[in-house]
Design brief:
Radius of gyration: 20 Å
Shape: globular
Helix content: under 10%
Distance between the termini: 55 Å
Number of helices: 3
Length: about 400
């Protein structure tokens, strides 16, 4: 007998309530014995650094207009109609590829062009031979113009823009999060004892890596990112990430920033706090004492990061935006919102909490922020940034 315990931490902002919330989403319950008895191999200390030039510094202390930080940007209102209304559950994953925005809305994928015009949707949730049970995750494969869906123990493929069924591929386990490597291979985060796997569409596991580690198991809405010639996945808000090198076809655990940033949390610190405080409390306890890396993106030679910083926590977490170009680094507090010095002269809003949302979006050419519609019956507005001004 076996079962799975997957706990997913999604950080999002409910602008209507002006309050940061943390959602713990239990997908399936677990038998603790099967988790606690699995062994964890200690990996060698990371010798590689994803962003070696970045060193954290003091917070900026003077007000700055948002437009002064952005060099190339545009606001994109997503078309709103009864047919294309996006759910208001704040768990959207957005992918910008092949000139389209693909938006996950519960168990549908909506497609918009780069001006926000609605183009169609994949809505085939059901038990039929060409349907999927649910959407755990999705990816876009522009080479074959396909949408891949992770649904329970299978990958289901559809063409875009026709949304016609292309095929289904059974798996021996759940793929909680995944990213395509090419037309036949993908990397997946699974609930198995070895959590990260390279898998072909016929279900063959070609490689696996990283022993199950509950203290470093938090999932991101966009869990895998392509950074240069690697696919990386951050581990539990720590200064570590699982990296898969596309050239050498090998896994490693890399540091995100230099270990000289000694205020950063590590895999070992997360494990220590997990043992002291348990699963439901340790993450916030770590954030009171250490910097946690929530998300990051790279466009060209520029990097943007979202971190939580230590101190007394009044509204769930203290959050800051890190903007980097080479060894030039600027850090701005953005949450709680009363602490921010960024003045929003772009959307003309007094609530800049949308700056927290870029971690829900993936694009190889831009950074995308999600701005809630003024009312729940309006689709979001996207702020797409192609270049930062640093």
């Amino acid at each position: 007998m076996h079962s799975i315990w997957d706990v997913k931490l999604n950080i999002y902002v409910n602008n209507m309530k002006s309050k940061l919330q943390i959602v713990y989403c239990f997908e399936t319950m677990a038998i603790l014995f099967s988790i606690l008895t699995c062994t964890r191999r200690e990996y060698d200390p990371a010798s590689k650094i994803i962003f070696p030039e970045i060193t954290l510094c003091d917070f900026e202390n003077t007000p700055v207009p948002l437009s002064s930080l952005l060099m190339d940007y545009k606001l994109i209102p997503l078309e709103t109609s009864e047919e294309c209304l996006i759910s208001a559950d704040h768990s959207h994953k957005i992918i910008k590829k092949d000139g389209h925005f693909f938006v996950k809305s519960i168990n549908e994928i909506l497609m918009f062009d780069d001006t926000g015009h609605y183009e169609g949707k994949l809505s085939k949730c059901g038990d039929g031979p060409q349907e999927y049970h649910n959407i755990s995750d999705f990816d876009i494969v522009p080479q074959s113009k396909e949408i891949w869906i992770s649904s329970q123990k299978e990958i289901v493929r559809y063409n875009y823009p026709s949304m016609e069924f292309c095929g289904r591929h059974p798996l021996p386990f759940y793929a909680n999060k995944f990213k395509s490597i090419d037309n036949n291979l993908f990397i997946a985060l699974t609930p198995e004892d070895k959590t990260y796997k390279i898998i072909s569409l016929d279900g063959t596991v070609l490689q696996d890596y990283f022993d199950k580690d509950l203290a470093n198991s938090l999932e991101n809405i966009v869990h895998f990112l392509k950074i240069d010639e690697k696919i990386v996945a951050s581990l539990g808000g720590s200064n570590s990430a699982v990296s898969y090198d596309l050239e050498t076809k090998s896994f490693s655990v890399d540091n995100i920033l230099s270990s000289s940033n000694d205020q950063l949390s590590t895999l070992e610190i997360n494990r220590k706090y997990y043992e002291l405080y348990g699963y439901f409390d340790f993450y916030q306890k770590v954030s009171q004492d250490y910097v946690e890396i929530i998300s990051f993106r790279k466009i060209g030679d520029q990097v943007i990061m979202l971190i939580s910083y230590p101190g007394e926590i009044e509204e769930n977490y203290n959050m800051a935006l890190v903007l980097c170009h080479g060894n030039s680094v600027k850090i701005y507090k953005i949450w709680p919102k009363n602490d921010t010095l960024i003045v929003d002269d772009v959307t003309k809003s007094d609530d800049t909490s949308f700056l927290l949302t870029f971690g829900s979006c993936e694009s190889c050419e831009s950074i995308v922020f999600i701005i809630d519609g003024e009312e729940y019956d309006n689709n979001p507005v996207l702020l797409e940034v192609r270049k930062l001004k640093l």
